[in-house]
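Budget justification note: compute hours in this period were largely spent on complex prediction jobs such as the one shown. Inputs:
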Amino acid sequence: MRTAVVIGTGLIGTSAALALSGRGVTVHLVDHDPAQAHTAAALGAGTDQAPDGPVDLAIVAVPPAHVAATLADVIGRGAARAYIDVASVKGGPMRELAALGVDLSGYIGTHPMAGKERSGPLAASADLFEGRPWVLTPTRDTDTEVLNLALELIAYCRAVPVVMEADAHDRAVALVSHTPQLVSSMVAARLGDADETAVRLCGQGIRDVTRIAASDPRMWLDILSANPGPVADVLSGIAADLDETVQALRALQSGEESRRKGGAEGIEDVLRRGNAGRGRVPGKHGAAPAVYETVAVLISDRPGELARIFADAGQAGVNIEDVRIEHATGQQAGLVQLMVEPKAVPALTAELRDRGWALRPQ
Amino acid sequence: MRTAVVIGTGLIGTSAALALSGRGVTVHLVDHDPAQAHTAAALGAGTDQAPDGPVDLAIVAVPPAHVAATLADVIGRGAARAYIDVASVKGGPMRELAALGVDLSGYIGTHPMAGKERSGPLAASADLFEGRPWVLTPTRDTDTEVLNLALELIAYCRAVPVVMEADAHDRAVALVSHTPQLVSSMVAARLGDADETAVRLCGQGIRDVTRIAASDPRMWLDILSANPGPVADVLSGIAADLDETVQALRALQSGEESRRKGGAEGIEDVLRRGNAGRGRVPGKHGAAPAVYETVAVLISDRPGELARIFADAGQAGVNIEDVRIEHATGQQAGLVQLMVEPKAVPALTAELRDRGWALRPQ
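Corresponding output:
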C-alpha cells in the first residue's frame, strides 16, 4: 500500500491515518468539515489535499447512518482499488449498498473494536488499535487483493484481524457491547431519585456495573440506531430472565414452602448461569480470565507511596499484573490490591513485609 | 466496652472480634462449629471459652435466616447489656423478633457495608471495615446506652456510622447492591451459549458490567432470600425500562418516520437518565465521583516497569489517584492509565517525557 484516502477524520479515521502515515503511506484526509481534516493533517496524519488519481485504499470512517451513501459515492467515482468502512455495524450498510446496485467486489466492511471516551481528531493516536480485535466481513464477491489491502492496514495498526459474517458481527456486538451499555444505563437510572443516604451505601459492585453509564448519549444513540434488531433480541432474552427473577423473588415471600423452594431454585439458576457466562469473558491477554492472587497493602495517600511499593515489588523480581487502589470512604488512607501470579505471592509478601509494609492477611 | 461475645465467627464476626481484641476488649467467640471459633481464637480474635457472666456487647454474626432465633435466644438468656446483629437485611429480622415477643430495648440492627470474595475466619482482618459505611437502625425503643455501645464498636472498627430506618436500609441495599448483582448475572448469562468468536470481541465495558457475576451463588441466594420484596420492586422498575427500550428499538426498525423518531427519543431518554444516576455514585472518598485526568503511558510487561513509572511520578511530586493497566490482546505490552488531579497533569507529563516514557497523546 502506497496511497490511501481517509474520509471522516474523527477519532477512528485519524488514528488509522496516523498509523498509515507512520509506515510511509501517503494519506489524503477528507472530512465534511474541512477544519477537522486540516486539524488531522496538522497532527501528522497526512495531507488535506485531494489525491491526483485513484489511491490504493479508501477508508470510510463516517457515522453509521452515512456509510452506505459515502461508499456508493466513492465506489461510483472509482476513487480507489479497494474500499472499507469502519462502522460499528455491518449488516445494514452492506444491504443498503446492494440495494443501491453498487459493485461490492472492491469492498470489505470492517470494524475495529477500539474507542475511547473522547472523540475527534485531537483524541486520535497511532496506537489506538494496538492488540485490539479488528473484524473483517468479506463475502464470496470480495477480491483477494482487497482483503489483502485491508489486512495490510490492520497489520500497520497492530490490531488482530478477526473474520466474521456481517450479521454474526452485528449479533456479537449487540451481545458484548450494545446491550451491556443499555443495561448499565438502566441500573444507573434507578439511582436518579434515590435518597442521598441510600446513595452513600454504594460500593465497588455498583460502581463497576454503572461505569459505562457515563458514556455519551448521542454517540450511543447513533450506534444503537444502526443495530436495533439484534440489540432488541438480546435485551428480550434479559427481559425474560428479569421477569422470571421477579416472579422467583415474589415466590420467596410466599407462605407455601414449595413455592419458596421454586423461587430459590430460580434465583440460584440465574446466579449460576451468570457465573458460567462470566467465566467466558476473556482477560486482558485475550485468553480466559487469568487467575491472579491479590496481595493487599495498606498505604497513605502521600506521593511516593505507590512508587515505593512498586520498587519493592520489582526488587522481589515480581511482575504486577493489575492494580486496584481502594480508598477508604472519607479518608486519605487506602489499600492497594496488587494482582500477581500465584507463584509470585510468597516472594512478594516476604519482600513487602521485610520492607515494613502492612499487609492485609491473605 | 470491656467484654463482648461474637456469635458466628465467619468473615464479619471474626473481623469485628479482631478489631475489638486489638483495642483490649475481652472477646468470647462462639460458633455452631466449634472448630471455626477455635480458628478465630488462634488468629488472635479472642477466646473460645464461655464468659463467666453477662458481657457488655453481644454481636450476632450468623446468616440472615438464623438472626432472629439467635437473638431471641441470647436476649432471653440475658447474655449481654446490649445486642446487635450485622446481617445484610434489617426489616425482616426486626419484625420476626417483635413477633416472638422479644424485648427490643437492648437491641440495634446494624449492617457493615464490607465484605470480600472469600468467607470464613481465615479471610478476616481487623481493618475490613475501615472507612466503610456501617448502618445502624435504632428505633424509639432503643436505649441510648445500647446505641453508644454499637457506636463504640463501629469506632474501634474505624467504620463510618450511618443511621437509617430498617426498611429504608433494605430498600437502599436492594437498589445499590442486590439488584446490580442480579443484573450483572443476567448480562453475563447471555454469554453462556454465545459463539467463541463473539466472546473474543468482549472489551472493558462488558468486563466491568459482569465482574460481580463471578460471585458465590449460595451466599447471594441467602442475601436475596432475606430481602425479596425490595429487590423485586427495583427489578420491576428496570423491567419496565427494559420493555420500553425493546419497544423503542423495534420502533427504530419501522418504516414510519414518526415511529422511528419516538424510538430514538425513548433510547436517548434511558441513556440520559443513566448519565444522571451514574453522576450520583460516590467515588472512592465517599464524595461525588472525582474528576481525574488520565495520563496514559506505554509499558512492557517486564518487572520493574511500573516501579519506574511510579518513582518518576513521585519525583514530580504527583499523587497517583488511581491506576488501570490495559494489556493489549495477545501481547505482553500494555498501557498504564494514571489518574491524577487535573492540575498535576503538566508536571507529570513533563517528568515522564523527560525520562523517556512514551505517552499516548491526551
